Fold:
Amino acid sequence: MSEEIKQKIKERSVDGKISCAQAEAVAAECGVSRQEVGKLINELELKIVACQLGCF
Structure:
């Protein structure tokens, strides 16, 4: 399952970055926690941008 999620993350990333909203959308689509998606984003060495909380 995590390989499928990683693929969805890669499809939505641009120039090594993915928006917070896109990451949340992947989590909702795949039925996993945002934390799980965040872990996979770290494994893929992508940066999170446009964070709604201003953390990244």
